Amino acid sequence: METPNPCMYCANDTRVTDLMIRIGELSVSVLYLFKEQTYKGRCVVVFNKGHKRELFELTEEDRNAFIGDVSKVASAVSKAFSPQKINYGAYGDKMPHVHFHIVPKYESAPKWGSTFDMMPETKILLSQTDYDDIIREIKKYL
Amino acid sequence: METPNPCMYCANDTRVTDLMIRIGELSVSVLYLFKEQTYKGRCVVVFNKGHKRELFELTEEDRNAFIGDVSKVASAVSKAFSPQKINYGAYGDKMPHVHFHIVPKYESAPKWGSTFDMMPETKILLSQTDYDDIIREIKKYL
């Protein structure tokens, strides 16, 4: 038996699909909708030109393209759902593969004025139809 | 009496200097050392070509330069202190001015494997000499 790739983003297996729904490809990344939707429109942008741990391991060209993708997604989510602010977070201590969480923040929603919860205790999970509606809205502005 | 600028980064007043020590200027940003040093080498990179709230409000040129600055700082902190991972966070719900927290994470330090605390309850504040030593180390690699 093959040992699974320790990086879930490179393997693109159920460790990813349990958490996220693939929306599509951008210039140097894959865009996912995060299933937990406490922050309506929350997405993840994953670099997909190989396994890189840190921003500074990317070539200048890829780094610029990647932040272009991140920026484009933040703008689309902003237009789609009118949050008061977008938060951007890249952590990955134990799953180091360059990716950004794009988290729309709302004055009326949890953690306004603070950071965001990676995985809130009270999870908001939606029906496939509701996920599809959110994805359709985001895609309008990509 | 003049009303103070609501943005502390634009005003560059004690709201900033209480929290951070200015290290110097990069291409389109100012680099600060965060005084709270639970995460040794933690810095903040603040966009300084005007007041912009979101990454997608920057021109492509400025956005590329800004992420270049962020990347350069992350690389310098990594070389200076050998953390196991760098975290990157931009929030600013109530202080919306484009800036990134560059937070080195260590297996032996708090919140390894998770996000980072914006302001840990147990604060690690250092002497000016110790801050100077950290700044000198970072500058070596900038």
Give an overview of the whole structure:
- The structure is a homodimer of 142-residue chains.
- By secondary structure, chain A is of the alpha+beta class.
- Chain A has a single domain, classed as HIT family, subunit A (2-Layer Sandwich), CATH 3.30.428.
- Helices cover 30% and strands 21% of the residues of chain A.
- Chain A has a five-stranded antiparallel beta sheet, with helices on one face.
- In chain A, strand 1 and strand 2 form a beta hairpin.
- In chain A, helix 3 crosses helix 4.
- The longest helix of chain A has 22 residues.
- The mean pLDDT of chain A is 96.
- The interface between A and B is large, with 36 and 37 residues.
- Strand 4 of chain A pairs antiparallel with strand 4 of chain B.
- What proportion strand of chain A? 15-25%
Q: What is the number of E strands of chain A?
A: 5
Oligomer: homodimer
Helix-strand topology string of chain A? HHEEEHEEH
Rg of Cα set of chain A: 15 Å
CATH architecture of chain A: 2-Layer Sandwich
Alpha-beta classification of chain A: alpha+beta
Q: Which chain pair shows the most residues in contact?
A: A-B, 36 and 37 residues
CATH H-level homologous superfamily name of chain A: HIT-like
Query: Percent helix among the residues of chain A?
Result: 25-40%
State the end-to-end CA separation of chain A.
40 Å
